[in-house]
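Late entry, evening session. Most of the bench is empty. Finally got around to the prediction I had been postponing all week. Sequence below, unchanged from the version circulated by S.P.
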Amino acid sequence: MKYSKGWGAVLVVLLLLILDQVIKIWVKTHMYLYDSIEVTSWFQIYFTENPGMAFGMELMDKLYLTLFRIIAVGFIGYYLYRIVRQNYNFGYIACISFIFAGAVGNIIDSVFYGVFFEESSRTHIAAFLPDGGGYAPWLHGMVVDMFYFPLIKTILPEWVPVWGGQEFIFFRPIFNLADSAICVGVFVLFLFYRKTLSNSMSKEDKKTDAVEAQ
């Protein structure tokens, strides 16, 4: 049974990674930077590049961020391997697989996109493997984001403190499939598998204490 769960986890990760990269590469090689395609009044494909964390946040230098992501993915991957070996519930395994796939998907952008693609701009669509080389060295690539859901667009009343009279948009962040996979994995994990997660962490702590006591 654990082998089928292991292959299930591999399938989830591969499908998410392939779909994430297909979407990103298509957007990168077919759209100008900040170009948009309106799918509905509340959903757009809006091409932007993110040098920082998920949902457009920028918290640290790109090199340190990429190295941090790689280390974090190593821990998540090892944990995923452990819970498959221990025959955990597949729903729990799938949640961790979503988080792992999402993290790896954004790492691929950070590690490789700067080398393999031209720089995108408002007037130039990037080419794959350009003759002049990419726009950044290894580990310095930017993450491609494209999903934009401006569910509410309005002007705030003048009586609202500080922001009165300004445009208000909800939901403003622009993200990609990898970000979505991480969020879905974390949301379902804490909604349905908090006890499993807590028990799993307790087991890991006990194993660590046992090793240190030897």
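Two things to note before I forget:
The longest helix spans residues 2-30.
Strands lie at 36-40, 43-50, 143-148, 152-155, 167-170, 174-175.
Will write this up properly tomorrow.
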